[in-house]
Amino acid sequence: MKLKSEPFLSPLLKKAEDKKGGSGYDDAMASPKTVTIERIFLDRTAKTSPLTRRILKDLPRVPVTIVADKKAFLRDIGKTSLSAGKKSLWITRFKGNFLKPCPATGTDYLCCGYWVLNAQTHCPLDCTYCILQNYLNVPLITVYVNTGNISREIDTLIEDQPKRLFRMGTGELTDSLAFDPVTHFNERLIRHALKKKMILEIKTKTGLVDHLPDIRKSNILISWSLNPQDFIKTQEFKSAPLEARLKAASRAVQKGYRLGFHFDPLLLLPGWEKKYSELLEQLTSKIPESEVMWISLGSLRFPPALKKMITERFPSSAITAAEFVKGLDGKMRYFRPERVRLYRHVYAEIRKKWKDVFIYFCMENRTVWEEVMGFSPEKSDHLDYLFHANLEKRFPDLKLPTAKQTSYFQT
Ligand code: SF4
User: Fold this and answer.
1) I need a labelling partner for 229 at 20 to 30 A (CA). Which of 65, 242, 292, 318 fits?
2) Are 197 and 158 in contact (CB under 8 A)?
3) Each residue of 253-274: b (16+ CB within 10 Å) or e?
């Protein structure tokens, strides 16, 4: 039966709405009206899954369409606009592994050897630069319900190479937490990861940490992608403001999580030097370095086709107005001297106060590493090893296996 179409706010967000008299933003929840679901498409084969039941229970007033012919549905739904897709939920099953190596691009840029757990794709937030706009074939928020084997996938990987330290995370093809108060997908992973020699990262631009379980401090980190508030306001729509992300990070520490921060994408927008300095001052004065497992730096990069989409969807965004060069992986990047200038500034600001935290570049070449940090990993496997060595030294409570280069170097 089709019910009256009514926008849905997840229970946590709804509570925030009520508290603020419907103004749409609340510090405790730290998110604006992020998740608005107006319709659900349910794959017939996913109907009886416990996760499906939970989602439908949580979204009782959202109309549901049962999809019998998945192939035809996917063919037609591809024409849905991205904006409409962000308000639609597609509940289905996935054939294949959920755990995969991070899809690094090209061999000229150093990759850190990260693994991604993709049980959900697409994202209710709306960042101007989001690469998913150009990457996913299905423009709907997609939740896969058949994730029962994920723990086994993780165990198999770790058992196969017990001397390596695997870092993995849920925030590659979505924001890890934007829809998590409904699916509670991360909780099961957290409980499993706590028993394993691995690092689990939950990556977000929301402040939605309160539904996560309290844990003993160990190998789980919640990480935030950060930008100055002015850039958040103009480029990261529906995400939590900077202040709210930092408050959520403090709450996450109280709940037993370690932290990570990603300055990615760094943006060369007017006033960037001062704005990044202020942001770093705010971060390093509010958060203790000892809680932070790692920080990444990456500058804006995008496939050429994304430029047109950004211009059409976000005509007032200035991010594509800069000068770009096509990298060896086919993506557009700022020119190298500009990237180095940007990185040097942010790197120096972090190091003013935080001397030990592990800082790495996401997909940069060795020349940039050398020019900014004064050294470079020899190759991607070496960078993977450096993570392990740093975490072993800084977090002895994790009792990690001893980091050895021979466990990482394939050739
Ligand atoms: S939070 Fe990440 S996945 Fe979501 S829209 Fe922004 S860049 Fe894309």
Assistant:
1) 292
2) yes
3) bebbbbbbbbbbbbbbbeebee
Residue 172 in contact with ligand 1 by CB distance below 6 A: no
User: For 344-391, how does the pLDDT look when each residue is reduced to its tens digit (9 = 90+)?
Assistant: 999 999 999 999 999 999 989 999 999 999 999 999 999 999 999 999
pLDDT of residue 410: 65
Q: What are the pLDDT digits (tens) for 106-117?
A: 678 898 999 999
Parse the chain into domains and list their residue ranges: 11-92, 99-137+150-407
Flag whether pLDDT at 238 surpasses 70. Answer: yes
Cβ of 132 closer than 6 Å to ligand 1, yes or no, is: yes
Backbone angles phi, psi at 200, to 5 degrees: -110, 130
Instruction: Tell me the CATH number for domain 99-137+150-407.
Output: 3.80.30.30
Report the candidate in 301, 302, 229 with the shortest Cα–Cα distance to residue 272.
229
Q: Whose CA is nearest to atom 8 of ligand 1?
A: 130
Q: Please tell me the predicted confidence (pLDDT) of residue 3.
A: 31
Phi, psi of 292 (to 5 degrees): -100, 120
Q: 53 C-alpha vs ligand 1 centroid, how far in Å?
A: 27
What are the structure tokens assigned to 113, written together? Answer: 């050897």
Helix (H) or strand (E) segment spanning residue 150? helix 150-160
Q: Please tell me the distance between residue 127's alpha carbon and the centre of ligand 1 in angstroms.
A: 6
Arithmetic mean of pLDDT, 198-203: 98
- The answer on pLDDT for 262 being more than 80 is yes
**Ligand 1 close to Cβ of residue 125 (< 6 A):** yes
Structure tokens at 344: 């040097």
Phi-psi region at 22: left, alpha or beta (left = phi > 0; alpha = psi -120 to 50): left
What's the rounded Cα separation, in Å, for the pair 228 and 217? 29
What end-to-end distance do the CA atoms of the chain give, in Å?
60
Going from the Cα of 139 to the center of ligand 1, the distance in angstroms, rounded, reads 13
pLDDT of residue 4: 33
283 lines ligand 1 (CB under 6 A): no
Q: With beta carbons less than 8 A apart as the criterion, state whether 358 and 297 touch.
A: no
What span, in angstroms and rounded, lies between the C-alpha atoms of 208 and 29?
6
* Element holding 270 (H helix, E strand): none
